[in-house]
């Protein structure tokens, strides 16, 4: 088993990574947690892994409740939170209980936010079941829901007590979801690790045919990078913002398409390519690196071109981004593969870029 | 001006107490906060104090938005939170902005929860306008909303950047609200300060005719006690639970009556008398102290008797209390005036007490 430590003082926790780990979750958690667990999952994951998890928890002596949500980013709302809260109250869960997120990023974000806010905070554990959640969203404590006006606009920084990653679950992951997860994997290479980016260029085929060794290696590497960045900057005052590479325009794509046309990772892929082009247009990044980024995104079967919306629509949404200050938008832009920095981009500059490159005039 | 420091390391802040302070809020905040403020208040307070506050903030160079909520505990819901979030998003408020709670406990709790969760956390300031909020709910960082199934079931521990208390606003407070606030004032005497309890016994008349010196003295004393307890135990792992004296049964009264018949302080008054009687019935507290508590509550014009509901209803609601563990309910019970402790009370014991003392059989 691989263990990656997320070093956050009193809020430190371990990421456990091993094939078949869902079946050993009960044992893994038995020392550290209270005796009552509420597992939150969705209707896609429940038939695949909920029974195995519940059996493992029950065998370790936990009393287990379950909440099965509908599957999809469009359900990541305050209304769904209300449903979760009412059910937790119905279970009689108290502060000695804990939540378990069994699912992808949507389940993890909502379960984490429920844990952050139910009874003003109870413990929770992440068991991510998509590549995207395993390499990114389950680690670092960002939780929350979307508003109709913007993605992740409501939430909390709230760390899990443990992350349990079972790479074997990826064998049942739809190919489109796997590709979407690869967008975040590629992101880690661009923002901080040129060697890892080159590894991905060499091993993309093995990863995409779900080679277990290649997958485990990717997950461990990504979790280590995420853990390191989170430890240095839990609340995104500095370096953690680099993890938003591709997300500023990516979020706008998701918002403008009503969270319906693109998976989060697909939108991030579009956002990374746009950010690379923007960096090139600003003279920050050479064309060779831009082409390598676009090439790897394309080979991963991900979209590179942004959907056509008027520039004014993109601007309007990006000016509501959490990372904006005043009337500039802060973009994470690559200088080269392995190095990015935050750059404020003025509205006018951004409008010119969007009009010229992505959007309808 | 009196200043009480709430010592919480990096999250420390000051409580500023002075007559006329709302008119100086802008100056007071000008050094510490970002340049954009969203004031959240209610339809009762807005006509009285919103203009003065906005003028003060504007004069200090702040850009000011406002949200006026309907007045009442029944609006302390997730639905109202959704309205707040949508408006904040509409203002284009970003992480360099901050919220201002201008109102009583309901406005403060919801504004604090909005600050804790909008964009995963932005700063906020409390300007409490009821006695209850000035002496209790605005200090200590408890924020949240009610669920249909229970009070304050969803929320966060999230500290304000400052608390600004203007005792003059109490001159316009309805008498019933003043009395409700006195319940929490009396609470401080019972849980930690026999001298203060005696002061209240001697000065109740002056306080109730809104003598400014007596009121200022009461507010400073209560804030000091609350600040001290909060500093020692921010997240209610220990001594902070003492602040819940009267609240366990009090919350049940509020829940059973749909938050409509009793103000929070009135329910706490009922809960304090019930807790004193329960303590006496368990041999923990002598009858003389129980009578002093009931006597002061009664002289403050507060209810002492719980509304008649079947014991099973009280039990059901109290077993959902945040402070319960397993099938016992943790009560804060007085040993004498100035000293309380947490006591687990079994369901059976509690049922017998409720049946014999408060509720319909």
Can you describe what's shown?
- Two copies of one chain form a homodimer.
- Chain A is of the alpha/beta class and 361 residues long.
- Chain A has two domains: 171 residues, Rossmann fold (3-Layer(aba) Sandwich), CATH 3.40.50; 183 residues, Up-down Bundle (Dehydroquinate synthase-like, alpha domain), CATH 1.20.1090.
- The first copy, chain A, is 46% helix and 20% strand.
- Chain A has 13 helices and eleven strands.
- In chain A, the strands form three sheets. A seven-stranded mixed β-sheet of chain A has the order 1-2-9-6-5-3-4, with helices on both faces. In chain A, strands 7-8 form a two-stranded antiparallel sheet.
- In chain A, β7 and β8 form a beta hairpin.
- In chain A, α6 runs antiparallel to α7, α9 crosses α10 and α10 runs antiparallel to α11.
- The first copy, chain A, is globular, with a radius of gyration of 20 Å.
- At the A-B interface, α3, β7 and β8 of A face α3, β7 and β8 of B.
In terms of topology, how is this protein built?
2 copies of one chain form a homodimer.
Chain A: E1 2-6, E2 13-17, H1 25-29, E3 36-42, H2 46-59, E4 63-69, H3 78-91, E5 97-103, H4 105-117, E6 124-128, H5 131-137, E7 142-147, E8 150-157, E9 162-165, H6 175-192, H7 194-208, H8 212-232, H9 247-256, H10 264-281, H11 287-299, H12 311-318, E10 328-336, E11 339-346, H13 347-357
Parallel strand pairs in A: 2-9, 3-4, 3-5, 5-6, 6-9
Antiparallel strand pairs in A: 1-2, 7-8, 10-11
């Amino acid at each position: 088993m691989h263990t990656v430590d997320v070093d956050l003082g009193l809020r430190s926790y371990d990421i456990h990574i091993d094939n078949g780990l869902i079946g050993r979750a009960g044992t893994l958690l038995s020392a550290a947690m209270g005796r009552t667990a509420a597992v939150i999952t969705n209707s896609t994951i429940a038939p695949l892994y909920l029974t195995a998890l519940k059996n493992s928890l029950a065998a370790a002596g936990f009393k287990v409740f379950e909440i099965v949500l509908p599957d999809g980013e469009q359900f990541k709302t305050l209304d769904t939170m209300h449903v979760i809260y009412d059910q937790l109250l119905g279970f009689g869960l108290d502060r000695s209980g804990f939540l378990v997120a069994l699912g992808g990023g949507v389940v993890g974000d909502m379960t984490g936010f429920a844990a952050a806010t139910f009874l003003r905070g109870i413990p929770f554990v992440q068991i991510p079941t998509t590549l995207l959640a395993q390499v990114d969203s389950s680690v670092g404590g960002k939780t929350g829901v979307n508003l109709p006006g913007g993605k992740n606009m409501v939430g909390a920084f709230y760390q899990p007590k443990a992350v349990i990653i079972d790479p074997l679950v990826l064998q049942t992951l739809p190919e489109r979801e796997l590709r979407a997860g690869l967008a975040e994997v590629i992101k880690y290479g661009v923002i901080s690790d040129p060697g890892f980016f080159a590894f991905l260029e060499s091993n993309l085929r093995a990863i995409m045919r779900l080679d277990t060794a290649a997958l485990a290696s990717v997950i461990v590497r990504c979790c280590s990078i995420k853990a390191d960045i989170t430890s240095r900057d839990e609340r995104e005052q500095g370096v953690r913002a680099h993890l938003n590479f591709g997300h500023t325009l990516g979020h706008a794509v998701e918002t403008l398409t009503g969270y319906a046309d693109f998976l989060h990772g697909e939108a991030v892929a579009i956002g990374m390519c746009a950010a690379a082009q923007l960096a090139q247009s600003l003279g920050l990044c050479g064309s060779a690196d831009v082409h390598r980024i676009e090439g790897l995104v394309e080979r991963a079967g991900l979209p590179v071109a942004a959907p056509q919306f008027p520039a004014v629509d993109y601007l309007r949404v990006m000016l509501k981004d959490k990372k904006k200050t005043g009337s500039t938008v802060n973009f994470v832009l690559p200088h080269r593969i392995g190095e990015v920095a935050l750059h404020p981009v003025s509205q006018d500059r951004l409008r010119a870029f969007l009009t010229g490159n992505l959007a309808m005039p």
